[in-house]
Design a protein that fits this description.
The complex is a heterodimer of chains A (about 110) and B (about 120).
Chain A: E1 4-5, E2 10-14, E3 19-25, E4 32-38, E5 45-51, E6 56-58, E7 62-67, E8 72-77, E9 86-94, E10 100-103, E11 107-112
Parallel strand pairs in A: 2-11
Antiparallel strand pairs in A: 1-3, 3-8, 4-5, 4-9, 6-7, 7-8, 9-10, 9-11
Chain B: E1 5-7, E2 10-13, E3 19-24, E4 31-37, E5 44-50, E6 53-56, E7 65-68, E8 75-79, E9 88-95, E10 106-107, E11 111-115
Parallel strand pairs in B: 2-11
Antiparallel strand pairs in B: 1-3, 3-8, 4-5, 4-9, 5-6, 7-8, 9-10, 9-11
Classes of the chains: A mainly beta (about 110), B mainly beta (about 120).
Chain lengths: ~110, ~120
């Protein structure tokens, strides 16, 4: 079945450093992998996605890497800022399951000023 | 563009009472999702609508939870009777159809339910 999970429940980084958040998945049939950011009291917000036929995708200060061999996904945030403090979720979706989006358990990122 | 609207933001009820949550998705979004997020966990999909039809409700506890999406726009999620373990944030999300299922969902701010 589908299962998306995270290695680290919490992560603390110094402001200005780079952050790396990791995620493991088990469904080889997933079409897209997505990262969401959730600030306290708000709903999750889409950050970036990557299609299953890609290895890397870059956005503004963020990079997502996909390693299908070991079923691993990571989100890299460059020059982490206090506003990046939030819980980050990886998620997956598959056309074979009507584009159902399944979320992992999340990693809490805390940026130290 | 207006975002996903949800109400109420907060609700406190006693166990065995009933509660209803309302969601208005982004205009033109055909797909609507209800997620349950228990404190410290990731959102769990309860039900997914495509227009006004259900495409997935496999995780919905149908003995107490019900949801509908009349006319393919607004949706309501009802819990009756509520249990202590239903305490959670109920998130509504919507997405475009025809985007190839990239997984980009637009979420409301959620309705926080506390069952005493």
């Amino acid at each position: 079945g589908e299962n998306v999970g995270l290695h680290l429940p919490t992560l603390s980084v110094q402001e200005g450093d780079n952050s790396i958040i990791n995620c493991a998945y088990s469904n080889s049939a997933s079409d897209y992998f997505i990262w969401y950011k959730q600030e306290s009291g708000k709903g999750p917000q889409f950050i970036i996605d990557i299609r299953s036929n890609m290895d890397k995708r870059q956005g503004q200060r963020v990079t997502v890497l996909l390693n299908k061999t070991v079923k691993h996904l990571s989100l890299q945030i460059a020059a982490t800022q206090p506003g990046d403090s939030a819980v980050y979720f990886c998620a997956e979706t598959s056309k074979t399951s009507y584009d159902k989006v399944i979320f992992g358990p999340g990693t809490s990122l805390s940026v130290i000023p | 563009e207006a975002g996903v609207a949800q109400s109420p933001r907060y609700k406190i009820i006693e166990k065995r009472q009933s509660v209803a949550f309302w969601c208005n998705p982004i205009s033109g979004h055909a797909t609507l999702y209800w997620y349950q997020q228990i404190l410290g966990q990731g959102p769990k999909l309860l039900i997914q609508f495509q227009n006004n039809g259900v495409v997935d409700d496999s995780q919905l506890p149908k003995d107490r939870f019900s949801a509908e999406r009349l006319k393919g726009v607004d949706s309501t999620l009802k819990i009756q009777p509520a249990k202590l373990e239903d305490s959670a944030v109920y998130l509504c999300a919507s997405s475009h159809s025809g985007r190839g299922g990239t997984g980009e969902l637009f979420f409301g701010e959620g309705s926080r339910l506390t069952v005493l």
